[in-house]
Amino acid sequence: MEGSVFTPSLEGMKHVKSEAGEMLTRPFLDVCKLILPVIDKFGAAMALVKSDIGGNISRLEDKYSSNPTQFNLLYSMVEVEVVAKTAKGSSSCTNGLLWLTRAMEFLVELFRNLLQHPDWTMSQVCTDSYGKTLKQWHGWLASSSFSLAMKLAPDRKKFMEVISGNGDVSADMEAFCTNFSPFLEENHKFLASKGLDNLKAS
Description:
Largest sheet: none
Radius of gyration: 17 Å
Oligomer: single chain
Order of helices and strands: HHHHHHHHHH
């Protein structure tokens, strides 16, 4: 593998914004998709997160494909639903974007923990990241399932070896966190401006 597992997503991030500085749908979703191979390396511990991220990407991709011109900009999907008053529905694209953003934040936090706490076990890394990000939005059932899954986290040393490839994985991981976080913050800011940033899971 050329570089680390982060190399393709780092490349993809360069294309997320238009020349006017607007978030583009396809490139943003592509970067989210390109990080899925990293989640794969976690095995069973991340099965829930992976299916959640995959499902939300598919939902947004389907909407984009229905009219690529209309939905070229990421937030146009939300605007349409706000006007139609369907944004708060559980199967809305707004909901999909919100949960995709939250799940990606969990991953960013997880990568940060790996970099900042070399002495932590993988289980500690995952549990702490979950507590800082997704947990507040999850109901009891999702929270319990998640806590159980975290116990299946792989051995840290093995995981780092698997994702390293022949690149500098720590530098790439740091670059991913630094460069991707502002996109997620922008999503939250936009959703908050519409009063849609605090939807919870049942």
